[in-house]
Amino acid sequence: MINQYSIFIFLIVSIIAANLAWLSDKLFCVREISHKSGWLRWFEWLIWYVISFVAGSFLEYKTMGTMSEQDWEFYVVTLCLFVVFALPSFIYHYDLKNILKQR
Q1: Contact yes or no for 61/85 (Cβ under 8 A)
Q2: What is the largest CA-CA distance in the chain?
Q3: Is pLDDT at 100 greater than 70 in this prediction?
Q4: What is the pTM of this model?
Q5: CA distance 52 to 21
Q6: How confident is the model over 43-56, as a mean pLDDT?
Q7: Strands (DSSP E) along 1-103, which ranges?
Q8: Do the Cβ atoms of 6 and 63 come closer than 8 Å?
Q9: How far apart are CA 99 and CA 2, in angstroms?
Q10: Interval 3-30 mean pLDDT
Q11: How many CB atoms lie within 10 A of CB 27?
Q12: Domain boundaries in the chain?
């Protein structure tokens, strides 16, 4: 039962991490920069993916006691899942924000 809660908490934290790059104008939510370009947002998003992946691997090791071996398909699926998690803030930043400013 405790494992289920930790998995749900991990998924919520991963969803938040996937959206941070597009919702915040600060670099890694810490350092203020004058202009955050699209490439910098993608790079920051990729770093958030790596951080959440490492946290997920640590959670797997902590709950199961071992790490399962994975092929390349697993990593592609987790990357695509992280893209899906980031979609709402991506749409907000590039489309909806401009529409709301015009109103």
Answers
A1: no
A2: 54
A3: yes
A4: 0.86
A5: 13
A6: 94
A7: 26-27, 31-32
A8: yes
A9: 43
A10: 89
A11: 15
A12: 2-102
